[in-house]
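Narrative of accomplishments. A recurring question from our advisory board has been how the design workflow behaves on a single, concrete structure rather than in aggregate. To address it, we present the structure tokens for one chain from the evaluation set, followed by the sequence designed for it. No filtering or post-editing was applied between the two.
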């Protein structure tokens, strides 16, 4: 939430993936006036807003079903209208049961995830819709959902597990910054009392990171978050010293990171540094960012 990074949550059924995704809304700062105007324009074109509607303050949260078509997801139709990716602009696009979406539909996400816009072409012409959203995807580790669980036995064969995970292409996984495993919580621990942080405390940290990014991209009318940085902006804002650069190169070689993954690790490290109130990216920030790279093979 702090840097608008895309997230993949992997865990067994009932682990709380959907709950975590919906909880993101409670720790996200409200829309700025500029962001709100962008969202209102999209919802107006889609016919989802009345003429008397005031500014939208809450960030959008869209959760299409896995049977949604490509047109429903990215937009289009005989009379082009914005799809779910545009309706989630400046908010969260939650895709539960991620591998159950048709692969062709998922591949349509690659352009908006990279460019922040959707291009819809028809015989009469083409139109572009904004689509700068934070993708939150959730999936089971295998078809039965029990792969890797200590207290349950997975009934899937290795080939079934591999086929299930291969439903998500490598290029699409490369565009997801944070790959998080969500373990099932034991029943006896659910009833225990813990001293936890409230959403308001977490939101305060996220707001601080957002303020840092507003100062960083203050003159840019399009980019607000670290995840949206271009290569030129990364050279300026993600510059690291020789020690960090050496560490990152060694890690990239060891983890066989693609060029896109390499730069996304740097963007996540920049956000971690912002949360830690650090002006420079340190080895600790890079090491933490590397922990979130995919374990799906």
């Amino acid at each position: 939430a702090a840097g608008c990074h895309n997230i993949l949550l992997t865990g067994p059924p009932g682990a709380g993936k959907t709950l975590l995704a919906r909880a993101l809304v409670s720790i996200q700062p409200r829309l700025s006036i500029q962001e709100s105007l962008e969202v209102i324009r999209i919802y107006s074109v889609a016919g989802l807003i009345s003429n008397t509607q005031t500014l939208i303050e809450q960030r959008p949260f869209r959760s299409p079903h896995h049977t949604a078509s490509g047109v429903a997801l990215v937009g289009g139709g005989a009379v082009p209208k914005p799809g779910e990716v545009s309706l989630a602009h400046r908010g969260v696009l939650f895709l539960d049961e991620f591998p159950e979406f048709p692969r062709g539909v998922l591949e349509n996400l690659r352009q908006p995830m990279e460019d922040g816009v959707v291009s819809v072409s028809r015989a009469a012409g083409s139109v572009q819709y904004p689509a700068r959203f934070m993708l939150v995807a959730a999936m089971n580790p295998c078809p039965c959902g029990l792969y890797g669980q200590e207290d349950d036995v997975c009934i899937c064969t290795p080939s079934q597990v591999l086929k299930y995970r291969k439903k998500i292409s490598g290029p699409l996984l490369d565009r997801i910054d944070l790959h998080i495993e969500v373990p099932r919580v034991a029943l006896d621990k659910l009833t225990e009392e813990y001293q936890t942080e409230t959403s308001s405390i977490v939101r305060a940290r996220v707001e601080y990171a957002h303020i840092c990014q507003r100062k960083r991209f203050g003159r840019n009318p399009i980019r607000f978050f670290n995840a949206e940085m271009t290569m030129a902006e990364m050279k300026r804002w993600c510059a690291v010293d020789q020690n960090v650069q050496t560490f990152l190169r060694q890690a990239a070689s060891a983890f066989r990171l693609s060029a896109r993954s390499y730069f996304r690790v740097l963007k996540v490290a920049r956000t971690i540094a912002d949360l830690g109130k650090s002006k420079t990216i340190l080895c600790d920030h890079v090491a933490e960012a590397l922990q979130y790279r995919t374990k799906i093979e």
